[in-house]
Amino acid sequence: MSLVDTLNGDLKAAMKARDKQRLSVIRMLKSALMNEQINAGHDLTETEEVSVVSRELKQRRESLTEFENGHRDDLVAGVKAEIAIVETYMPKQLSDDEVKQIVAATIEQVGATGKGDFGKVMGAVMPKLKGQADGKLINQTVKSLLN
């Protein structure tokens, strides 16, 4: 079952429950997926769907940070609710230890020895962890293991 099918089912459920917040977020996700599909010119693969959802999640997290820094408490609660809804459509996130193990194995595979190999390691590890871990966490883990 594709993500769009799941979203359609959840959209109907949100309509029946009169959950305006959930309905709005699901419509936004569905719209983003459909726009990406039109731009790609083909049905999206699971990886592409995860990429779109993770991009939407990243945008909301950045908004949350900006609202918190700007002391806009009236908007913070709404964005946190949106983040919680979007996260339900993401694949299971890996723990810090699991990310560390995968990064360590990748460093061994590519034969990285120091900071100069950072780009090579990131290029190899990102496809493995796409959608399963936050990019900042991966970045920090790679830096700490290469030092």
TrEMBL record:
Domain of life from the UniProt record: Bacteria
GO MF terms, alphabetically ordered: carbon-nitrogen ligase activity, with glutamine as amido-N-donor
Protein name per its UniProtKB record: GatB/YqeY domain-containing protein
